Fold:
Amino acid sequence: SFLFQMALISVNLGLMNLLPIPVLDGGNIAQALLEAVTRRPMSARARMVAQGVGLALLVTLMLFVFKNDIVRLMG
Structure:
């Protein structure tokens, strides 16, 4: 049971890391695909904006999950 839980958490973390949010690995894959399609690199400004938006999305998702966990634990 413990090993199953650990495997489930590990797979879940791996899948979440592949989300196309610029801070995560999926965002790097999406950026590489975008550069391959347009055949030119993204500007530094566009990369910085994408990283900021991605970080904001990730923090918002974390706050939402923490709030749901706390509400569920309180009753």
About this structure: DSSP finds three helices and no strands in the chain. The chain has a mean pLDDT of 93. The longest helix spans residues 44-74.
